[in-house]
Design a protein that fits this description.
This protein is 32% helix and 31% strand. The protein contains 6 helices and 9 strands, in the order H-E-H-E-H-E-E-E-E-H-H-E-E-E-H. The strands form 2 sheets. Strands 1-9-8-7-2-6-3 form a 7-stranded antiparallel sheet. Strand 4 and strand 5 form a beta hairpin. The radius of gyration is 15 Å and the shape is globular.
Length: 154
């Protein structure tokens, strides 16, 4: 009954840090199967971002150059971005938790050393959460009562 009635898109404007960030990743782990992030040539790719990409290499699902992703579109330049899609499992979740303890760390690579704009998806690549780190906001899509109730406990 509630599945068809609840369709909520929530904007997060306050950074989620520490234990709440860990709880959010655990919540995402329950509902997501894939995550992505972006690197951009125009802001540079840090050594830490390259190390992360190498550490996640065994879990890579897809990767391609782009100027458009969920939280951004670069329209005035040739292709400058590269998006990476990874399997979300316990090992990759633990890697993400080791690399960051705040949601907005996934912002401008030249500022945080991490790739930009992490996003999490269901099996059909329907977005659950996506971040625009350098603009300090995230969008979360809740499509069921179960998801909503779990989210409110974070």
């Amino acid at each position: 009954f509630y599945r068809g009635c609840l369709d909520m898109k929530k904007i997060i404007k306050r950074n989620i840090k520490g234990l709440k960030y860990e709880r959010l990743l655990n919540w995402l782990f329950e509902f997501s199967s894939t995550f992505s992030f972006v690197t951009r040539k125009d802001v540079g790719v840090s050594k830490e971002a390259v190390k992360l990409i190498e550490e996640l290499a065994n879990f890579l699902i897809d990767s391609h150059p782009t100027n458009k992703w969920l939280s951004n579109e670069i329209i005035d330049n040739p292709i400058i971005g590269h998006i990476y899609y990874y399997e979300l499992n316990k090992e990759t979740k633990d890697i993400l938790l080791r690399k960051s303890n705040t949601l907005f760390d996934w912002g401008d690579d030249s500022l945080t050393e991490l790739p930009e704009d992490i996003a999490f998806y269901k099996k059909d690549r329907e977005s659950i959460l996506y971040v625009n780190g350098h603009e300090n906001y995230a969008i979360i899509n809740v499509l069921s009562l179960k998801e909503y109730l779990k989210l409110t406990l974070i």
